[in-house]
Amino acid sequence: MRMAALDRDSLPEALEPKHVQEILGIGRSQTYELFNNPPFHVVKIGRIYKVSKITFFKWLDGEQGN
């Protein structure tokens, strides 16, 4: 999955770190640093992180702060 080939509509409603990593083109460590101190709302279920696709893309597009 590469950003150029990514279609927002094809992504799941709840993004996982692997999706965010591919979208941003960052490494695994940076991705988990972002999820541990997020500028957007993140849900942690056990050891699994999730972020709403809408929330994430609003943040990425500069439409929403914390």
For the largest beta-sheet, the strand count, sense and barrel status come to: 3 strands, antiparallel
The tally of domains stands at 1
Number of helices: 3
Radius of gyration: 11 Å
Strand order of the largest sheet: 1-3-2
Give me the secondary-structure category.
alpha+beta
pLDDT averaged residue by residue: 91
**Could you tell me how far the N terminus lies from the C terminus, measured between alpha carbons in angstroms?**
27 Å
Q: Helix fraction?
A: 25-40%
The name CATH uses for the topology is Arc Repressor Mutant, subunit A
Question: Under the CATH scheme, which class?
Answer: Mainly Alpha
* Proper CATH architecture: Orthogonal Bundle
Q: SSE order, as H and E?
A: EHHEEH
Shape: globular
Low-pLDDT sequence parts: none
Description of the molecule:
By secondary structure, the chain is an alpha+beta fold. 38% of the residues lie in helices and 15% in strands. The chain has helices spanning 17-24, 28-36, 53-60; strands at residues 14-15, 43-45, 48-52. β2 (43-45) and β3 (48-52) form a beta hairpin. α1 crosses α2 (28-36). The protein is globular, with a radius of gyration of 11 Å.
